[in-house]
Each structure stands twice: as structure tokens, then as C-alpha cells.
Amino acid sequence: MLNGGIKLAVFDCDGTLVDSQYSITNCIYKAFEDFQLPKPSHEEVKQVIGLPLNEVISALVADLDFHNVEGLCHSYSNAWQHLRKKNMLDEPLFPGVEETLKILRKENWLLGIATGKSRRGLVGTLNKHGVLHHFVTVQTADKRPGKPHPDMLLKAIEETRVIKDNTVMIGDTTFDIEMATNAGVKAIGVSWGYHTVDALRSAGAKDVITTFDQLTSILMP
How far is CA 116 from the centre of its chain? Predict the structure, then answer.
């Protein structure tokens, strides 16, 4: 039975909770270097962060066959794991994240994640910052269809048994907002991520916050 009294806030990770654009870009550059391909611009990379990795690679290089996409993804993953082992990943939490998560939990909100990261990458990131325990449902693009497909968000709703009207998606890209729209869920954009405020509003974001602590005033008016 779905619970009409419990509320669920589902967060994107990259660009919403953590600023990982530079590590992502560096790993993409390493993969492209391995395959002797021209490097995309940093702005081009930013525009596709949030999609599943194979879709990121496909968007950055036209006319790649499956095996080359797979190879680039493998090279990217190796570069990411190398940076993690060397403790060189640059993906700090945005200001106010941990404090806001604690407030929401105290007010009996359930918290979830829906991200284009792999589960291993996500767990490593959240554990590094000591915030993984805040989330009761974790959905990743290596286990489910990626954004803007609604499956990750719908699975989070199913696992928590929360009704759609009590669910909100918070993210920094149009992929997050479109996923929420496709799932029939309210979307809140954040201004500090990788897509513009205008793009988020055009995609269907009901609100766009400029600091993380504004989220509590919207969710708990």
C-alpha cells in the first residue's frame, strides 16, 4: 500500500550534490587520448553530464561503433578508478548540502538518489563525504535506463512506497527535469550546476534554487 503521508526527495548527484565536472572532463580527455580522438571542449562535456556514460561518449563523438564506445567507456572508468586510488578525484560537496539533508531527514523526509553515475562511482563519492547513510533509495544508470527515462525515479517511488504527489526531483540538468516530468513528479532545478536556469525552467522546473538552503523553505513552507 502506498503511503500518502510520507514525502520523498530524490537528488541528482553530479552538479547537484557534488561538483565533479573537472574530474569527469579529465577522465573523458584521458579516454579520448587513449583512442587518439580530438578532445571535446569543457563546455561540450558539461552539457552531457548526467547521461549514462555510453550516451555521453556517443554524444561527444559521432559515428562511433559499439566496440569503440565500449572501449572509451572502459578507458574512462580506468581513469576514474586511478584518480580514486590516488585520492585525486576533485568532486567537492556544494555548500549547504549536508546541513540540508540533515534538516530534511529530521523533518521525516525520505531521501533518494537518481544519477547517471555507476553504483560503484556513486557509493565511492557519497562515502567519501560521509553522506551515503542519508539515502534510503539509490538508483544508478548502470542498473536502470538512464535519464530522461523515468524508470529510476519510478523505481525510487516504488521502493519507498511514496505517492507521486509527495515526491520531488532535485537536479541541475534538463535531463533531471525531463525525467521528473516523464514520471509525473514535481521538479526543482538548481542554479549552480551544468545547465542554465532558463533551460531548466523551459524543461519544466517548477522552482530553481540558487542556494541549497532554499530547498527547505520550498519543501517545508
Answer: 6
| pLDDT tens digits for range 184-198 | 999 999 999 999 999
CATH number at residue 207: 3.40.50.1000
Of 40, 64, 85, the one marking the end of a domain is: 85
Residue with cell 517548477: 206
Secondary structure class of 168 (helix, strand, coil):
strand
Q: Do 180 and 169 meet the contact criterion of CB atoms below 8 Å apart?
A: yes
How many separate domains does the chain show? 2
Instruction: Give the pLDDT confidence of 61-81 residue by residue, as tens digits.
Output: 877 787 789 999 999 999 999
Cell of 26: 579529465
Cα 42 from Cα 45, distance rounded (Å): 5
Burial call 66-85: b when 16+ CB within 10 Å, e when fewer: eeebebbbebbbebbeebbe
Residue 150: pLDDT band (50, 70, 90) is very high
Q: In the β-sheet with 207-209, what is the strand arrangement from edge to edge?
A: 137-140, 109-115, 7-11, 167-171, 186-190, 207-209
Per the listing, cell 548526467 goes with 50
168 and 186 Cβ atoms separated by less than 8 Å: yes
Q: What is the pTM of this model?
A: 0.94
Apex 25 CA angle, 22 and 31, nearest 5: 140
Query: Can you give the residue range of the structural domain that contains 34?
Result: 21-85
Within a domain: 2: no
